[in-house]
Write a structure and sequence with these properties.
By secondary structure, the chain is of the alpha+beta class. The protein contains 7 helices and 15 strands. Helices cover about 30% and strands about 20% of the residues. The longest helix has 23 residues, at about 25-45. The protein binds zinc ion.
Length: about 325
């Protein structure tokens, strides 16, 4: 975020200024103290890249979270929405962005409008897929802009990933425990939004998206940045034999990804680690990947969690958009 970067600059500069304008013993001590604090804060910043918690951003009517790594690129807008500030009730309370979960459509439309207005993005630019836990990634051109924004019937069918190099299209996925993944290649100006639950993870949608970016846009994997958003974490995400078996089939050795728990036949599925591994195996640099480490089940008051809400839940949205290219 620009404001965050600006705040850091002010903090750092204020330290240097103190050191530069004074010459007494006391000021020297202060200068060393400032340099020490600066070094500590610098190392905290660089360590915070992977993994990190996301940055909360308070908007007019709601709060969204942003990734620190993607926030460094002013030419894109991205966000992960929260439950705050909407008009839906009960398990959809309050900012449910999903038409497909049993909420009142009018309320969902209002919620999307509230979110879009708060972000300063026209709702007509929001573009969605009818997600089905696949590894399919659709390429979105100018004509695809706005599909699914007002009605789920015209969203991209049978697709869990959207990718584009066209400006002013806000690609969105909707989740409540599954992993939302945002990708950006700043060299070739390509973005993607992916929905990766356990099925999408096992079907390797993250790998498919990277390879599609390489094939269709000439991207190089080492230039791609990724953010893995709030989702069911390894603290909570228990699965049964069926999921464990599928994961073994897909990943081969899954020592760190599917971890047996004491109770027989139960496992923890670490979908953060699994998707991190898929991305690095595809050539994305580990230090280009930010894992939010926010567990939706632990923080279900802030983010929708299908499990925490007993299987009936709203959806929050992760979105990414290339801003209009400025003409010089
Ligand atoms: Zn948890």
């Amino acid at each position: 975020m620009a404001w965050l970067a600006a705040k850091r600059d002010v903090d750092v500069n204020s330290c240097h200024n103190v050191g530069a304008i004074t010459h007494s013993k006391v000021s020297k001590r202060m200068m060393f103290a400032c340099i020490f604090i600066y070094l500590i804060s610098s190392s905290t910043v660089s360590q915070a890249i992977i993994p990190a918690s996301m940055i909360p951003v308070e908007l007019n009517d709601t709060t969204v979270f942003t990734f620190e790594n993607l926030s460094r690129f002013p030419e894109i807008t991205h966000f992960v929405s929260t439950r705050k500030g909407g008009v839906s009730e009960k398990n959809f309370s309050s900012l449910n962005t999903g038409f497909h979960v049993g909420d009142d459509n009018f309320r969902v439309s209002q919620n999307r409008r509230i979110l879009a207005d708060s972000l300063g993005i026209a709702l007509e630019k929001f573009t969605f897929a009818n997600q089905c836990h696949s590894a399919n990634v659709a390429l979105v051109d100018g004509a695809g802009k706005g599909r699914g924004a007002f009605d789920k019937t015209d969203a991209f069918p049978n697709t869990d990933g959207l990718m584009t190099s066209v400006s002013e299209i806000c690609l969105g996925v909707q989740v409540a425990d599954c992993v939302p993944i945002l990708l950006y290649d700043p060299k070739n100006r390509v973005i993607a939004a992916l929905h990766a639950g356990w099925k999408g993870t096992i079907r390797k949608i993250a790998s498919e998206a990277v390879s599609k970016m390489l094939r269709h846009y000439g991207s190089r994997a080492e230039n791609i940045y990724a953010g893995l958003g709030p989702s069911n974490g390894p603290c909570c995400y228990e699965v049964g034999e069926d999921v464990s078996r599928e994961a073994v089939k897909s990943f081969g050795s899954v020592k760190d990804i599917v971890i047996p728990v004491r109770e027989k036949g139960k496992y923890i599925f670490d979908q953060w680690k699994a998707n991190f591994m898929l991305l690095t195996d595809a050539g994305v640099k580990p230090d280009h990947i930010e894992v939010s480490k926010i567990c939706t089940q632990c923080r279900s008051e802030q983010f929708f969690s299908n499990r925490a809400l007993g299987g009936v839940s709203g959806r929050f949205m992760a979105g990414i958009m290339l801003k209009k290219v400025r003409q010089h």
